[in-house]
Amino acid sequence: MVKLLYLILMSLTQDAKHLIYERLRRIVDKHVRVDEQPFSLSDSVKLSPREVRAIEFLGQSDTVNVTNVATHFHFTKSAASQLINRLVKRDLVNKEVAPNSDKEYRLTLTADGEAARQLIADMNQSRLDMFLEAIHDFSDKETTATANVLGALEKLVDRRLRQFK
């Protein structure tokens, strides 16, 4: 698909640019559907995409609090607190009073939370491996052209996101 994208870019026709836009829109729509699927830790435990991202984030540091979660994910503190409380109830996150403040909680992964983080990391590595296999035969020029198109699209999405602030 990217080889086709590269050939289209080289022609620089208006129709080709519209084709790129429409194809990427379809890809994004499909990715959103995939990304909305729950992640199965076991037959009985499934995590929402937000819960998966929170576990990834919490696994990066042992000094995370609810405010950090809210800021990182652009949530309200209330939404971040609700997310954390769901993970605490599932015994994936520890919520302890922070040593420097009675009003703040330090968040860490439990042993089960760390196991979940490792499963998520393995899934992410598998996805990366699949992607790298898919583009294995791309030349440096094709890879660069694709990266340029994706960079331009990311700037467009960033600009659109700023409209909602």
TrEMBL record:
Signal peptide: none annotated. Keywords: DNA-binding, Transcription, Transcription regulation. Residues 1-155 form the HTH marR-type domain. InterPro entries: HTH_MarR-typ (IPR000835), Metal_resp_HTH_trans_reg (IPR052067), WH-like_DNA-bd_sf (IPR036388), WH_DNA-bd_sf (IPR036390). SMART domains: HTH_MARR (SM00347). This is HTH marR-type domain-containing protein. It comes from Pseudodesulfovibrio sediminis.
